[in-house]
Amino acid sequence: MSVARSPVRLPAEWEPHAATWITWPQNPRDWPGKFQLMPWAFAEIIRKIANAESGERVRVLVGSASVLHRASKQLEKAHVDLGFVDFFVIPTDRGWMRDCGPCFIENSGEVAIAGFGFDAWSKYPDFALDAEVPRTIAGLLGFGLTPVTHQGRQVVFEGGALDINGLGTLVTTEECCLDPSVQVRNPGFTHADYEAVFAESLGITNTLWLANGIVGDDTHGHVDDFCRFVDPRTMVLCEEKDPDDPNHAILEENRERLETAKLEDGSRPEVIRLPMPAPLHFDGLRLPASYANFLITNAAVLVPTFNDPNDRLALGILADCFDRPVIGIHAVDLVWGLGTIHCLTRQEPLG
Fold first, then answer.
1. Which of 182, 197, 223, 263 is deepest in the core (most CB within 10 A)?
2. What pTM was computed for the model?
3. How many other β-carbons are positioned within 10 Å of the β-carbon of residue 47?
C-alpha cells in the first residue's frame, strides 16, 4: 500500500529563487555602537544577491518612506542594480527576516506561506510588528497563507531553527524546541508534536534531532549557526578543535548524533566538518560567529567571514560543496547583532 505524497513541500535553499527578502536596518539596539555601519554591510549583501543574470530580486522592507529614500540612495552609492530591488514599506520591530519573515512553501506546485507565529524567540517583549510580517507580505503579493496550528493554538517557530534537504528531511535542535524552562516557544510540545507539525505544514517525513546550539546564540539553539544541508545527501557541521572551548563538547555531541542519523530514504548523510573561527567577543559578550550562517542564492553562496585564519579554509571547504561561486562577506560588525547573513534573509522560491 503506497502512502499519498503531501501536496506541501519546503524547497531547499539551493533551488531557484524568485527573490530574497531582507529588512533594512532600523533598530539601533540590535547593533549598539555599530549601527551606523550597518547600511554599508546590508548594501554589500544586497549587491551580491540582486542579479540580472540569475534573475534573483531582493525585496527590502523599510519602516517608512523616508527610510526608503535613504536606503535607495545608499544602494545606489554601492552600485546595486536597483532594477532588481523592490521596496516595501512595512514597519518592523527588529527585522531578522529568517525568523520573523514568511516561511515560503510550495502547495500543489504554487508558492504559499506557512503561517508560523513569532514571539521574538520567547525572549524580548517587542515583537507585534515583526509577527505581522508574513500576513502583510501575503496580502501584498497575493500568496495564500495558512496559519500553522497544533492542539488548538498557533505554533511559534523560526526559520533559523530548521534546515532541510528538499526531499523530506529536516534538522533541528532539542535545545530550541524542547527546553522546558528557557525561551519556551510552545509549552508542553514533545518530539512527536513538532514532527506532526513539520509533516502537515512543511511536508516533512523525517526529522533529525540534534542537541544544542553554539555558545552566544541569542535564539537558544538555532541549527543554522552550526549545521546545514549543502545538497540532498550532504551536511556541513561545524567543528571546534579546542577541547577547552565550550563549543567543542556541544559540536562533538551533535557529530555523534549524525553518525547514526538517516535520511528520508534510510541512507546515511555525508557529514563534512566546517571549522569555527576563533572566539569573537565584543563588550564582554561571546558572539555566535560561524561560517555555517551562509546564504545560498541563485548566483552565489554568501559566507560570513571574521578576519580569521580559518576564513580561507572555510571558504575552500564550502567551494567544494556547491555548483556556484562562494563569496566571503565581512561579518565582524554584523555578528554584534547576534546573527549574520542567513539570519538576516529569507528566500522566496521560484515555484
1. 223
2. 0.97
3. 16
User: Quick one: fold of 8-349?
Assistant: L-arginine/glycine Amidinotransferase; Chain A (3.75.10)
DSSP symbols for 93-154: SS--HHHHS-EEEEETTEEEEEE-B--HHHH-S--HHHHTHHHHHHHHHT-EEEE-EETTEE
C-alpha 301/C-alpha 4 separation (Å) is 35
Residues 70-84: pLDDT tens digits? 999 999 999 999 999
Q: Could you give the C-alpha distances from 305 to 171, 238, 294, 310, in angstroms and in order?
A: 24, 14, 10, 9
- Residue carrying C-alpha cell 555602537: 33
- Distance CA(206)–CA(137), nearest Å, equals 29
Nearest to 174 by CA among 340, 183, 166, 325: 183
Q: What is the DSSP string of 80-93?
A: --GGGEEEEE---S
Residue 1: pLDDT above 60? no
134's CB contacts (< 8 A; 6+ apart) are 100, 101, 102, 103, 113, 115, 116, 145
40, 80 in Cβ contact below 8 A? no
Considering 103, 227, 238, 343, which one is annotated as catalytic? 343
State CA 77 to chain mean position distance: 28
What is the C-alpha to C-alpha distance for residues 262 and 270, in angstroms, rounded to an integer?
10
- 343 is an active site residue: yes
| 45: helix, strand or coil | helix
Mean pLDDT of the chain: 96
d(CA 84, CA 16) in angstroms, rounded, equals 16
> Could you read off the pLDDT of 258-300 as tens digits, one per residue?
999 999 999 999 999 999 999 999 999 999 999 999 999 999 9
Q: Please give the grid coordinates belonging to residue 330.
A: 565581512
- Among 63, 185, 203, smallest CA distance to 133 is for 63
Q: CB neighbours of 176 closer than 8 A, spacing ≥ 6?
A: 161, 183, 185, 213, 219, 220, 221, 222, 223
Q: Which residues pair with 19 in a beta bridge?
A: 57, 348
Residue 3 scores a pLDDT above 70: no
Listed residue (208, 164, 158) closest to 339, CA to CA: 158
